């Protein structure tokens, strides 16, 4: 029986396999697929380029019919990998207004809702890693003495 999902399919050039990868992906991978770029201020502040979108985040639509619209994310559709933004709505013939589904890659995160502690921690994690790596680079390196051939051979 063929597998439904595999990480290796990510690198396939076939569009059918790419669609299969996205459609059958587990939730923890789908969550990453719902990431949007951060604006310049947030990018400089958090030392990240993108971050997954959540309900309550403020975004600016960069592509499509609603280009330039700034609004709050009302719904994140994990099944279809789309988001719904307040301000990007269309009227139906019946009368009610419905949200237009937008690809998260086509929006820019203006402000991030950090009410959740884990989310705030995840956003700051990259800053911590970069600080640690820069601290390691400033430490003086130990000079390693070359081993003698006789030390590595065990006496039996």
Give an overview of the whole structure:
By secondary structure, the protein is an alpha+beta fold. The protein contains five helices and seven strands; from the N terminus they run H-H-E-H-E-E-E-E-E-E-H-H. Strands 2-1-7-3-4-5-6 form a seven-stranded mixed β-sheet. A hairpin with a 4-residue loop joins strand 4 and strand 5 (82-91). The termini are far apart. The mean pLDDT is 85.
Topology:
Elements: H1 15-24, H2 27-33, E1 35-38, H3 40-46, E2 50-52, E3 58-61, E4 70-77, E5 82-91, E6 97-102, E7 107-111, H4 117-138, H5 149-152
Q: Estimate the helix proportion, in percent.
A: 25-40%
* Low confidence ranges: none
**CATH top level label:** Mainly Beta
CATH topology: SH3 type barrels
Identify the strand order in the major beta sheet: 2-1-7-3-4-5-6
Tally of structural domains: 1
Q: What is the radius of gyration? A: 23 Å
